[in-house]
Amino acid sequence: MIRFLILAGYFELTMYLQLSGKLDQYINVRYSYLAYISMILSFILALVQLYTWMKNIKVHSHLTGKIARLTSPFILVFPVLIGLLVPTVTLDSTTVSAKGYTFPLAAGASKTGVSDDGTTIQYLKPDTSLYFTKSAYQKEMRQELHKYKGKKPVTITTENYMEVMELIYLYPDEFLDRDIQYTGFVYNEPGHDNYQFLFRFGIIHCIADSGVYGLLTTGNQTSYPNNTWLTVKGRLHMEYDKNLEQHLPVLQLAEVHQTKEPNNPYVYRVF
Length: 271
Hints:
This protein is of the alpha/beta class. It has 2 domains: 1-87, no CATH class; 91-266, CATH 2.40.50.140. The chain is 34% helix and 21% strand. The protein has 6 helices and 7 strands; from the N terminus they run H-H-H-H-H-E-H-E-E-E-E-E-E. It has helices spanning 2-20, 32-54, 66-85, 93-99, 134-146, 161-170, and strands at residues 154-155, 179-187, 195-203, 211-218, 229-241, 246-258, 267-268. A 5-stranded mixed β-barrel has the order 2-3-4-6-5. It starts with a helix and ends with a strand.
């Protein structure tokens, strides 16, 4: 009976995340089919355990000790309780301040994409090169860049946010002096007077590999507090950042409009 309840709990948890719209705050929506598969499997296995319990069928157990028999159900049910009882918190500028970010190739930054303690480093730009061979990555990026060739204005949306951001940092010359419009939340980094970062948290696969991505902006007459959502439009140019000790693409703002936080503040990398 305990096995049935635990499996039913996993089924209920997955259904709850899906129906409440919170699933996309944990995984890339592209992989939501995996949640459906796990939900179906949990339901089927729960029915099997219910049938086994009702028919009083004896099953072999590898748990021989009393402590193991008592603690194993609590270990299995713990993720279900966390998912159902602990409220979902949206990542914002507080997370950026607490966790920090490191721009690739900045002074003292790891060039492998992994910090000394083994955790993934937060980037200003999405970096998907770890999931390709070098030649395949270059080919993929050139194909994506082809869509944005020319001097036409670039509108960055929720759907292409991470794609365009990665291309801007890889091929900044292709986007210089072009009008760029996008939406993000304000982050005021100490040491960047008269500048504000405009970020969105992005997910490549799941929340574990999430990062904060966006551009440094300048030219705004109003200094907005952290977590203010803005839709901005401006022209891109390169500036040398003394704190990061390298040149960065900077958006010179021409239009700024305060807006509401999107229903889903996260963006996702889609290939």
